[in-house]
Amino acid sequence: MTAREATQKGATVPGAGEASEDADHNRRELKTERQLRILEYVSKHGGADVTALATWLKVSGATVRRDLQ
């Protein structure tokens, strides 16, 4: 039986959830790092707009807006 067949039958694959947990952890770390950089930018410049932050952080405007929530 392949791992895929086993999973479809409800079996668990050892370590399968670890990759997902690691990815979630990395995303949280990246978000936290961006938020700290946003604070640094705003402190230095006295304010900012989404476009300027997105350009500075090299991310999309939507990512900056989520980070600001």
Description:
There is one protein chain. This protein is mainly alpha-helical and 69 residues long. Helices cover 75% and strands 0% of the residues. The protein has helices at residues 3-8, 16-45, 50-57, 61-68. Helix 3 crosses helix 4. The protein is elongated. The termini are far apart. 3% of the residues are buried. The mean pLDDT is 85.
What is the secondary structure topology, with strand pairs?
Layout: H1 3-8, H2 16-45, H3 50-57, H4 61-68
Helix pairs in contact: 3-4
The secondary structure category is mainly alpha
Q: Give Rg in angstroms.
A: 19 Å
What proportion of the residues is helical, as a percent range? over 70%
Low-pLDDT residue spans: none
Specify the CATH class.
Answer: Mainly Alpha
H/E series: HHHH
Q: Briefly note the CATH topology name.
A: Arc Repressor Mutant, subunit A
Question: How far apart are the first and last residues' alpha carbons, in Å?
Answer: 46 Å
- Write down the domain tally: 1
Q: What is the overall pLDDT average?
A: 85
Biggest beta sheet summary = none
What's the total number of strands?
0
Beta-strand percentage range: under 5%
Q: Please, how many helices? A: 4
The gist of it:
Helix content is 75%, strand content 0%. By secondary structure, the chain is mainly α.
Q: Which features does this protein show?
A:
single chain, 69 residues, mainly alpha, Arc Repressor Mutant, subunit A, 4 helices, 75% helix
